[in-house]
Amino acid sequence: MSRFHSNPDAHGMQFGKAIVTVDLDLMDCMIRAPRPAKGSMIGDIVQSRRFHSLDEIEGARAQQLRLHADGDEVAGDIARALKFAAGQISSKQGKRR
């Protein structure tokens, strides 16, 4: 794990309840956000997801936007974090998406 992803407090950007770290050397990002624990009575747990390409990031963002439209507030935070990450990576690559 890169130094950026291993220390989200120092290198992360917060969007509501979601935190994103972007590693421009590896051209990837990691999202951390509370999600409902499946099959458990403990409530929410913080889940981490790592995305290795702009295509993965944009696909995940589209899914989170659908979940947000269905009423999932944290999904909207995740979608905004993914949009930020995609912008950072595409700027580094020299192209706009």
What can you see in these coordinates?
46% of the residues lie in helices and 27% in strands. The protein has 4 helices and 4 strands; from the N terminus they run ααββββαα. It has helices at 3-6, 8-11, 54-69, 73-93, and strands at residues 13-15, 18-23, 28-36, 44-51. α3 packs antiparallel against α4 (73-93). The longest helix has 21 residues, at 73-93. The radius of gyration is 13 Å and the shape is globular. The two termini are 26 Å apart. The mean pLDDT is 88.
Topology:
Elements: H1 3-6, H2 8-11, E1 13-15, E2 18-23, E3 28-36, E4 44-51, H3 54-69, H4 73-93
Features of the shown structure:
97 residues, alpha+beta, globular
Through-space gap between termini: 26 Å
Shape: globular
Low-confidence stretches: none
Fraction of residues in helix: 40-55%
Mean pLDDT: 88
Brief summary of the model shown:
By secondary structure, the protein is α+β, with helices and mostly antiparallel strands. 46% of the residues lie in helices and 27% in strands.
